[in-house]
């Protein structure tokens, strides 16, 4: 891997895919070079990189804060977010919806989501995943009736028995 940050950024942004692949075989990119991957229009280099290495914490955070469904689908299919970034997901419904397709949020993040009563976020999550027992109990006690009915329709009588 190019040792200098400028060299890594150049390989990431301006060199051919073949040159990029050759450089990646030698090791991870520095954080600023990983940020470059998020700004590329073509997702080929991003996908090639994340198949080999997870993104650094700050880059993962920037990914979540971004609005790139294509990158969400690639990254979340391959990696779970770090715990602190999983809690961040509840503030980004589009990212959360795609993340929930592949992974469940930990109990703490689910509790934060239902306690904030963000309807759009909760709906996007429960369309794909059941709530854990603790979050479901809080949800049943505090959510609006139509949202509880929606959850029960999705998960049937077993969801009602859990309460």
Please, could you describe this protein's structure?
By secondary structure, the chain is mostly helical. About 70% of the residues lie in helices and about 0% in strands. The protein has 12 helices and no strands. It has helices at about 5-15, 15-25, 30-40, 45-50, 55-65, 70-80, 85-90, 95-100, 105-115, 120-125, 135-140, 145-160. Residues about 160-163 have low confidence and may be disordered.
List the helices and strands and how they pair.
Elements: H1 5-14, H2 17-24, H3 31-39, H4 44-52, H5 57-65, H6 69-78, H7 83-89, H8 93-102, H9 107-116, H10 119-126, H11 133-142, H12 145-162
Helix pairs in contact: 1-3, 2-4, 3-5, 4-6, 6-8, 8-10, 9-11
Low-confidence stretches: 159-163
Major β-sheet, in short? none
Strand content: under 5%
Q: Ends: how far apart?
A: 54 Å
Quote the average pLDDT: 89
Q: Order of helices and strands, N to C?
A: HHHHHHHHHHHH
- Tell me the quaternary state: single chain
Work out the helicity level: over 70%
Based on CA inertia axes, which overall geometry fits?
elongated
Compute the CA-based radius of gyration.
19 Å
- Total strands: the figure is 0
SS class: mainly alpha
Tell me the number of helical segments per DSSP (H or I, 4 or more residues long). 12
Q: Outline of this structure?
A:
The chain has 163 residues and is mainly alpha-helical. It contains twelve helices and no strands.
Brief descriptors of the model:
elongated; single chain; disordered C terminus; 0% strand; mainly alpha; 163 residues
């Amino acid at each position: 891997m190019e040792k200098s940050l400028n060299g890594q950024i150049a390989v990431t942004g301006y060199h051919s895919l073949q040159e990029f692949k050759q450089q990646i075989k030698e090791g991870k990119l520095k954080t600023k070079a990983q940020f470059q991957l998020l700004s590329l229009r073509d997702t080929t280099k991003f996908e090639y990189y994340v198949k080999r290495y997870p993104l650094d914490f700050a880059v993962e955070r920037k990914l979540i804060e971004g609005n790139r469904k294509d990158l969400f689908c690639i990254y979340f299919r391959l990696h779970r977010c770090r715990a602190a970034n999983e809690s961040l997901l509840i503030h980004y419904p589009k990212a959360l919806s795609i993340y929930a397709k592949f992974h469940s949020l930990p109990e703490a993040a689910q509790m934060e989501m239902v306690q904030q009563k963000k309807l759009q976020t909760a709906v996007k999550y429960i369309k794909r995943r059941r709530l854990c027992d603790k979050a479901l109990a809080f949800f049943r006690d505090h959510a609006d009736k139509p949202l509880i009915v929606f959850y029960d329709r999705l998960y049937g009588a077993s969801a009602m028995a859990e309460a």
